[in-house]
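Tutorial handout. Part one gives the primary structure; part two gives the three-dimensional structure as tokens.
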Amino acid sequence: MNVQRQIETVCLEHLASSGKVMLIYGPRQVGKTTLVKHLGKISGLKSKYLSADLSENERLLMKRDRQTLSDLTEGYQLLIIDEAQRIQEIGLVLKIFSDEMPQLKVIATGSSSFELANKTSEPLTGRKTVFHLFPFSLGEIIQNRNKYELDQQLEEILLYGLYPEIYLAPNSQKRGLLGEICESYLFKDVFQLTNIKYTTKIRDLLRLLAFQVGQLVSVNELAQILSINRETVERYLDLLEKAFVIFRLPAFSRNLRKEVAKMDKIYFYDTGIRNYLIDNFKSLDYRTDTGNLWENFVVAERRKQLYYLRKNVRSYFWRTYTGAEIDYVEEGEDGLMGFEIKLSKEKVKSPKLWQEEYKGGFQLINRRNYLDLLLEGMR
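Part two.
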């Protein structure tokens, strides 16, 4: 099944109109290689593909010799460097292409944004455009089915997530493939690309976060449970964010005394990864965490959607010390909008303080209407 990625159009527009180097960040196995090879075919440009996973390509590009790089790309209009973070001083290599061969278009992909970003930030100042690629979004998989058919897959998606290989595999193979992605790619990248002494601590941290999805996360409490200091926990969280495993949702507050403001919620980009970490693939009818799983799914899908739509929206949650709360809040050009995310509920009331202080909008997101929100503007 062919699934057109939502950043394909904007990437093509960039190739047609800009001379800047295109960087595509994203975790392994989300389809970056498939995307860039496809872009090479449909761009109308004569393209050359190099994978830095191959040692000969890595050695060649590490030379940073202008004449060698010129000879390598002679006759081509587009150069694609896959897994570019493997190349030492990749930023300098890309700078040579940008400055010395301005007629050549360049795409570089990286599985770990923090590694590629660290190597390209200074050399490519003003010379790069960055795109992110995530696991499949609902807006991408709806291309091949209608809303009814997509909704029939909801439980499968909640349990196993939307990594392309996982989504397209038979259910009997999904659990094993998730394990391979976690152990061979996601965790391996984080461990290899930074100096972490205790890898078991990161695994334990991820399990704790997986159990706390949708709840307030106390960094001090995590540090106590893991027997490491707060600074180390913060560093691990930062690495996991930059490796596209988790993301934080901060609290919305206008400094009212009643509002929780100093703790975040933490979600996983993919619910399948989250379920693998806690080893729970039970049906929704037999789970005690269905509400948390549903909240993670909706917030993560909305995050992908807003990114692909290039919407200038800031995302939060809202909670008071007296118990009033809204699961998810957006602040954009049209003001504030709160969303209560409950799979089965049919009615919920907007908190009184939310109405009085902020006069924000309010909507329940449940099984009946979630596709209206998560497919808005994406077809």
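Part three, for discussion. The longest strand covers residues 325-332. The CA atoms of residues 10 and 131 lie 9 Å apart.
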